[in-house]
Design brief:
By secondary structure, the protein is an alpha/beta fold. It is built from 10 helices and 11 strands.
Amino acid sequence: MKLIDFEQYLNQLMKPEQIKDYAPNGLQIQGCEEIIKIVTGVTASQALIDLAIEEKANVVLVHHGYFWKNESYVIRGMKHNRIKALIANDINLFAYHLPLDIHPTLGNNAQLATLLNIDVTGPLELGNALSIALQGQLPEITSGCDLAALINEKLNRECLHIKPPSNKKIKTIAWCTGGGQDYIELAAEQGIDAFISGEISEKTTHIAREMDIHFFAAGHHATERYGVKALGEYIAKEQGLNVVFIDIDNPV
């Protein structure tokens, strides 16, 4: 598959023009013109790039790429090493950040809902069809401890559970993968029982306790493995390309 065709295919699928983001989405570093093998992963780290080189991949496709808002323009040190390795090996780097979070079926939030058997009922940001955070319901009322155990089992990572004083049962739930912990207040204002994200901030604990909502921090990386993996599997099925998902472990 030609690079220009692959780029157009991905952009039509992910629709990056729909949402304002903190980094460019799509092709970030250009490589060879013929796409045969793709490596997918959460972040375009040196470890992922090195393994992509071993795999003789033509594309590295990630959720976390480069050129973030407010980062230095200077290409040196870690950034130089990563970019040099991609260019020297003629590897294309594609990254989709928020477009991959919000995709209705392949996105990080949609995939986490599937993994945890949550029925999506709509956006957390009411009236916003492109809401990054979602809300839904569990199939049956459960305790905070049982939900924490389910998260630990499915993500293979021990989550941090902040219980509210009431330690109420959970039926309604909202979530935003990665660094979406600040949506907890919006969830609490809507009377939702629990909120899941990847990370936690110091203030999150106080919000959970004072606004009577369970909070689960399940890991930025752990909650965002599944979107890019699903995207790669979809590409392999639809385009017949060789796609390999590589999970570089990250405890955060």
